Amino acid sequence: MPLNSKQVVEQVRLLHGYHLAERLQLDRIRRYWKGRQALPAVIPSSAPNEVHVMSQSSRVNVMPIVVNSLVQSLFVDGFRANESADDLQVWEVWQANRMDKRQSGIHRAGFGFGASYGVVVPGDPDPVIRGVSPRSLTVLYGEDPEWPIWGLEKLGNGLWKLYDDEAFYYAEIKAKSPLYSGDDSLEITVIDTKEHGLEVTPIVRYLDEEDLDDEDEVEAENGAADLPVRGQVSPLMPLQDQIDLTTFDLQIAQHYGAFRQRYILGWVADGEADKLKASAARVWTFDEDPSEISVGEFEQTDVKGFLESRESSLRHAATLSQTPVHELTGSLINLSAEALAAAEAGKDRKVNERQTGMGESHEQMLWLVGRASSPQIDVPLNGQVVWRDTSARAFAATVDGLGKLAQMLNVPPEELWERIPGVTKDDVDRWKKTAQSGSAFGDLAALLDRQAGDLAGVA
C-alpha cells in the first residue's frame, strides 16, 4: 500500500538531510573533476595581483583524462540471452531510449563520483530509462544490496520525487524563512502519488568498484567525516594539488626569474626616461667615476626542475589510476601495435573489471525494463550485455586470431562476428540475415540443379 501524506513528509525530510550531507562531498569532487578546485593555500592574500592571476591559471587538470579514458572504453552494443523475441523487445526499448548515447552519462558519473544510478519508470508505449547523478539522487539501502528501500531525487524548482517499491511521490520543499536553519525549517507539501506496480524500488546502482568497507569510512583526524575515497577523482585529489602547486611555482619562476636581470651599483637614473634608455641601450656609458660604479647581471632561473617534477607527478597519477602514461603526458613516439597494447595492459584489466560490474547493473536494468513493459517481458537472469572491443590490439592480428578459432577449433564463424572490433549488434544481425538469405538461395540453386540432373537422366 502506498504511503500516506504524513509518511511521505517524514521520509522526504529524512532523505533530504542525507542529500545535503552527501552534496557537500560530491560538490567538492565535482570542482576537482571540472578544474575549479581551490587555489593553492600557500599564496598569501597580500600577494600582488599578478600572482593571483597566475595562480588561477595554474590548474593543470588531469581528472577528465582519467575519467574519459575509462568512459571511452565502455560501450554496450547488444544484449544476449536466448535470442528470443522477448530479448529483442527489451533491446528495442534500450534503443528507443537512446541509450547508445546516454549510457556514457551513467558511466561518467559512476567513474567520477564512485556511483551513479539508472531509473526505470513505466511509459507509453515503452518504459522510460534515465541516468541520474548522485548529486541529484540520494538512495538508502537496507540488507538487499540490489534494490534500495528509498530514493529521493531533486527535480528542480523546489520539486522532489520520492521512490519506494509501491509508488512515486512528488513533493515540494520550501524553506519557512529565508535563513535556512535545518530540516525542521522546511515546509514539505505532497503534490501527487503514482503507483508503478513494479514491486521493487525502480533504481539501479552503478558502482565504479565493489568495496565491502565502503560504508565504514575512517574518520579524519579532526573527528569529522573525511571525504570518501571512491571513484576515480577522489583518490587523485592530493596529487592534483601537487601538480597545481608545481605549475604555480613554475609560472612564478618564469615570470620573475627566467630571464637575465642586469644591475648597476653606484648609479641611479634621474627618471623613468633615463632608466628606459639605459635598459634599451646596447652600450652603456657613465659620466661618473668608474671606480664607484659596478655593472653586472643575475643568472636566469632554470625551470627544468619544475618541468621534471610536474612530469613525475603526471607519471605517478598514471600509475595510481592505471591510465596509460602517454595519455597524460602525450609522450607517444613510434610505438608498434604490440608495444601500444603492452602499454595499455593495465588499463585493459581495469576496463574488464568495470565491464563486469557495470554489465551486471545494465542487465539488472534491462530486467527491470521487462517488468515495466506492458505486457511484461520475461527477461532471463542469464542474459548478458555485449561490450564493444576498444582495446589497442592490431585489427589484422585480431581478425587472424578469430580466423584460426574458426578453422582450427571449428568454432562457427557466426559466433565470432560480434568479437570483431567496432562491430555492433545491428551489424551482426544484418550479417546473419544476409547469410541466411544467401544460404536459402544456395539451397534453392542446388535443388534446381538436382532436379535438372534427374530430368536429364530420364530423358
Descriptive report:
About 45% of the residues lie in helices and about 15% in strands. By secondary structure, the chain is an alpha+beta fold. The longest helix is centred in the C-terminal third of the chain and has 34 residues, at about 425-459. The radius of gyration is 32 Å and the shape is flat. The model has no long low-confidence stretch (mean pLDDT about 80).
Task: Output the keywords.
459 residues; flat; 14 helices; alpha+beta
Total strands: 12
* Count of DSSP-assigned helices: 14
Poorly predicted spans: none
Q: Beta-strand level of the residues, as a percent range?
A: 15-25%
> What is the N-to-C order of secondary-structure elements (H for helix, E for strand)?
HHHEHHEEEEEEEEHEHEHHHHEHHH
The helicity comes to 40-55%
Output the structural class: alpha+beta
C-alpha Rg, in Å? 32 Å
Identify the overall geometry: flat
Largest sheet: 5 strands, antiparallel
Q: Distance between termini?
A: 82 Å
Overall pLDDT? 80
Major sheet: order of its strands?
4-5-6-7-8
SSE arrangement:
Elements: H1 5-33, H2 49-56, H3 63-71, E1 76-80, H4 85-96, H5 99-113, E2 115-121, E3 128-132, E4 137-140, E5 150-156, E6 159-163, E7 167-175, E8 186-195, E9 203-207, H6 237-257, E10 261-265, H7 272-280, E11 294-298, H8 304-321, H9 325-329, H10 337-343, H11 345-372, E12 384-387, H12 395-408, H13 413-416, H14 425-458
Antiparallel strand pairs: 1-12, 2-3, 2-9, 4-5, 5-6, 6-7, 7-8, 10-11
Helix pairs in contact: 3-5, 4-11, 6-8
